[in-house]
Amino acid sequence: MIEQSAFPVEPWCVRETHLDLDLLAQSESVFALSNGHIGLRGNLDEGEPHGIAGTYLNSFYEQSPLPYAEAGYGYPESGQTVINVTNGKLIRLLVDDEPLDVRYGQLRAHERVLDLRAGTLTRTVEWVSPAQRRIRLHSTRLVSFPQRAVAAIEYVVDVLDGPARLIVQSELVANEAGPAHRGDPWAAAVLEHPLVAMEQDVGTGGAILLHRTRVSGLQMAAGMEHLVEAPGRVDVATRASEDWARTTFVCQVQPGQRIRVVKLLAYGGSSMRSQPALRDQVAGALTGASYSGFAGLLREQRDYLDAFWDSADVQVDGDPEVQQAVRFGLFHVLQAGARAERRGIPAKGLTGPGYDGHTFWDTEAYVLPVLSYTLPGATADALRWRHSTLDLARQRAQTLGLHGAAFPWRTIRGQECSGYWPAGTAAFHINADIAAAVEQYRVVSGDETLEIEGGLELLVETARLWVSLGHHDQDGRWHIVGVTGPDEYTAVVADNVFTNLAAAHNLRVAAAAVDRHPELGRGLGVDVDEAAAWRAAADAVHVPYDEGLRVHAQCEGFTRLPEWNFTADQKYPLLLHAPYFDLYRKQVVKQADLEMAMWWFGDEFSPVDKARNVDYYERRTVRDSSLSACIQAVLAAEVGHLELAHDYAYEAALIDLGDLHHDSRDGLHIASLAGAWIALVAGFAGLRQCGPALAFDPQLPVGITRLRFTVRWRGLRLGVDVGPRQVTYTVGDGAEATLDLRHAGEDVTVTAREPVTRQLDKRTPLLPRPPQPPGREPARRGATLRPHPSSGG
Amino acid sequence: MIEQSAFPVEPWCVRETHLDLDLLAQSESVFALSNGHIGLRGNLDEGEPHGIAGTYLNSFYEQSPLPYAEAGYGYPESGQTVINVTNGKLIRLLVDDEPLDVRYGQLRAHERVLDLRAGTLTRTVEWVSPAQRRIRLHSTRLVSFPQRAVAAIEYVVDVLDGPARLIVQSELVANEAGPAHRGDPWAAAVLEHPLVAMEQDVGTGGAILLHRTRVSGLQMAAGMEHLVEAPGRVDVATRASEDWARTTFVCQVQPGQRIRVVKLLAYGGSSMRSQPALRDQVAGALTGASYSGFAGLLREQRDYLDAFWDSADVQVDGDPEVQQAVRFGLFHVLQAGARAERRGIPAKGLTGPGYDGHTFWDTEAYVLPVLSYTLPGATADALRWRHSTLDLARQRAQTLGLHGAAFPWRTIRGQECSGYWPAGTAAFHINADIAAAVEQYRVVSGDETLEIEGGLELLVETARLWVSLGHHDQDGRWHIVGVTGPDEYTAVVADNVFTNLAAAHNLRVAAAAVDRHPELGRGLGVDVDEAAAWRAAADAVHVPYDEGLRVHAQCEGFTRLPEWNFTADQKYPLLLHAPYFDLYRKQVVKQADLEMAMWWFGDEFSPVDKARNVDYYERRTVRDSSLSACIQAVLAAEVGHLELAHDYAYEAALIDLGDLHHDSRDGLHIASLAGAWIALVAGFAGLRQCGPALAFDPQLPVGITRLRFTVRWRGLRLGVDVGPRQVTYTVGDGAEATLDLRHAGEDVTVTAREPVTRQLDKRTPLLPRPPQPPGREPARRGATLRPHPSSGG
Fold first, then answer.
1. Long-range contacts made by residues B638-641, C-beta under 8 angstroms, separation at least 24?
2. So what's the ipTM on this one?
3. Least crowded by CB within 10 Å, which of A232, A456, B465, B641?
């Protein structure tokens, strides 16, 4: 675990003040740069030591057989694994022929800073070579948001004492040796030597390497060009072989002088374009980057981020750690989604090899809700990617004996890659999650283009899936059996509440969308009877409720299962210490499931239901998934456990800065980082999107004195400023802007001229703060921020 | 599929009158010889062509990693696969240097006969070599029952026309090339070159080869010695290399003359004994066989079988095919179990590589019930094997977080080898099946030795498992959730009726056994409270019943699941055409499950229950398992559908002679072959073991005019002779023998002096004959035996 002191608390930076080689892999994830298309882990410039060397291109994967001890019909036969592509961030330095290596010589200082406004990773090293030559290295790395194919590194070496011959070797390296990750179910499979050389295009000051994958048939190109500034003579030469290219700069530098090398990088990958087209694309990108120059790239980057933060920033007064963490989280959500552009947004973005680089429901259920309110175009892009895989989802449904489309639980390209169906294929809610994201995008953005250009088809095909999955009983109630909800410790069940309500929502919004676009609906073969059947199923959906306990059963029979016998020394995550067999048959919950249902479909539950359900499920939820804390924060806040919500918000936000799940080395938890925003905005500000309405119901915990943020709503930017006693809503765009919202149940109209302020009544919980399973109590965040947590008010 | 005409109907033989190379693999299984320790597939003497070359030693296996696309806690890491050991049945013949190969020259005649009384496989070949030399080969092969380590082949060649030089090469061959079985979930994994040579002991007329496995650390020896008779000069020489040994006989034979070679084979395998000990053991076995001579071996074999048939034969008048098939079945049950002696009895015996050579619940639930009534010592041996694996089962329970012992779903040595837990580990009923077999053996044999020497421990440790698996609800009812019953199309369910009743039975018999042996019970740590808890759980066991439909629910909620949508062109088995996900969530049943419960625990169901349940489940049972038909026969007979029972009995009995499941090539279905006996004896004679009582309630279908059989009961042999209108019970052992039984609810005492005859009332079904799923109607056996099935009475 990363100690909290590893990163000092600063509002706009994540700073590492000394290098801890034991935490190298974690810091590489934290310091990863990406624009959603290119991802560079925060590996040291000189490549080693490293935790996990990683350079990624979105959706650039290799395919390999999925093995089964006992095979079964419909099991996916091949998996897809994101591969470590050509490493272009490598720059080695020799000082009088001694290689800069932090493990040798003396490391006098080492600082890395991720600047969330500049969009750069800077590194400052003061190093004394084994031969006692002292230098300072300052490097600045960026992956450009505006220029999608481009990354750049400014590499400056100052010689601090006697004269030195400096040799800078800037490289492209394909097929780097990878780590071995055996035995860890959460770590990615590692494919050895995935790239086959196709072509090398070598100039004096740069090179382009072209490779392809063996099985998946993808081609890629990586190119580098350089600018160099140094006193006196600099010799430059470039050599290349199949799997590497190296541009070498050599110069003699006097004390107080420096060499500055700017490395421009460009990447391209494709399954369809020709080798020459790919080579020229990368050459073109290098030319464009060169035209901007490094200063220009920095400026564009800041402009891009200024615009993002202007409509996405969340200000948290009173809890500087959460302040830092939520910005860190938003920055990485942006990095994951900004320029993915019709590719998936993987669960770990492009920050590491975890989960094989797969995209899960995390995208639609956690990341897109944030992007829809902050960068809606990225949501539309991500859903257009889903739409581009619709044919594969239709085939999958057919294989499974179902109608419509069955989207994969985990995938890179669109094919199902889940090798354990009870926690994969059976988690059909992914389809309703996609539908919900389509609908939410339409409502929040006000843009109907997506719906017309594929969204409707997504809604219709997922609705068809649900109708073929569900059935009416003798009494007419509509059930869905044999599926798995969000909680992966309870699988293959009947009538999971979240799934049932999400399916009903899917059916309703599909029917409504067909009403809005009757012509398109007819084109998809939807007739009146079909839409009526959707509405009928939705209206008859069964929601299990335990009359005796007066709580909802997460699924049929759940509340009658045996309880988990938590021992004092219970080890977590449970799945590493207990068989699925035992987890499935007990009342133990991996992650928010019914709470997810109560967040998304809050109108289906009374306030008393919510309070009682939170009380019941909190005691049984072990949060072995990083997807849980943020949702628990939202519900805890809603039912009045504001300090508990604060604890959970902290956990969601700090997941990677604190390495709370001990696996940040494999990549960041993008959904939980998005969850920090969800915990604050949906939790403490109470944001809900209820049908066509935007609603808030703010209430701060004691430890947060003020919460300010902006959300986009139908082209407008709504500012929300929450204090302990009042909230103010403002509209920021244009003098005539008007925005209707609901505040604590009251309809309110905000105009640009007239901000609206409302006093907040103190929310009193119906029940006392519930306990969690032993060892799974969240860190008492509130308690650290004030001496007497129980005395606040 | 094997056409019915492939094997003419004869009462005591299975005869193949011509060689069909397309059915070679199936016939190799049908003609396999085994004594439970050594197994020789019915490969042709000359080794090729072959379907699957197979020579097996019980429990001689190799270990290999079990792969998982997504691993989980408690998944078995390695599997065990029976291996094809050194082939000693190989005898090649050269006629004037042309090898005898049925694919070349002219095959004038080819007959193979499995003689069920002699215990031999004979083969007669008339062959004309490509050079037109005509010979007749007659070989007789046996695997000795009395001499466990010994097999023998008599190989006689007659030259029918001009003189010929005959060369007979008798071999031992290790690491034969095996078949590739990819893509078939039912076919065994094949391990290449599993044997590592250790030593070769070569004499003039024979050799011993010693090998070991690489990973599992087992050692084996195979030896051969020969006797030869031929006119004139015979040269004999033996050579050997690491993986082969060859004894060559050469002679010149005139028309009308013959060469006769007797090959004596011996096998030994061990995980513990030393290499010299193993070598000497095999040498000793060869000496013993040599002392008997081939004629002696034949005589001993027949004596052994005469004794077996004397107390095990079933005579079926009216249906000669079933007559033949039930004897064939009993013969293979005997071959599988006779001399297994503290090894498992695999699902396919030692007849083929199917299911990797694993032992399943088939043993305790299908094979041992037959052996307990016919060869009880074999039952005791098999259960002593289970007991020898108790420590592994205790470890498994601990791994799973349970108490007591959790026996493996599939194994060779005792470790769980199931790679898909919902249809493996979750099928905990295996433990109750073992307990039931222990109890049944005690009651049927009257022998308490097994109980004292391990049986009690099996009962206690399995009882402890159930208590840790089950739980009492608020109302005190006892439930078992999250387990899989016999029906593998319905998995990981709550309160499977069979499992619950079997667990309750296990708990009760364990408590009673502790009462019988209080001292032993205390030694196992059982106190009064523990036994009381067992009884309390058993008495409170929950049995789901659907009040609306007035049928038992196979498991909680089963009758409310969606129905399977059977199409007109439905393909079977369903598991090759539909995902588990869909099978599990629908009312479709792979194999008898509730019917199994009604057979074993008939007292828990009223006659009306049984009739209604049979009617309900028959419509939903697809018999995709070979374990189903015989149980369906028993219940169909009980509720009065005697013709349907006959159809099922036929299906169970003919499973391999007719290759009804299209996989007899991989080995025989020993449980279904035992099931032929079950269908006849438990079905038409109505044999039940109800607590301490032996009960009958006979009733024949129209197509069977008389059914006679013997069962062993507490050291006595009871003869049962059922006709259409009456039954006669006789006791065969000693003048003073007395046997109490229950006939159709009436207590009856049979003595050696006084057979008891009772008239039979015609059984009238409460409901009409139920239909089966489309395409799964059993062949109408009754209809083939008489012109107007509806007019019989």
1. B638/B598, B638/B599, B638/B602, B638/B610, B638/B683, B638/B686, B638/B697, B639/B607, B639/B610, B639/B611, B639/B614, B639/B765, B639/B766, B639/B767, B640/B611, B640/B699, B640/B763, B640/B764, B640/B765, B640/B766, B641/B614, B641/B765, B641/B769, B641/B770
2. 0.91
3. A232
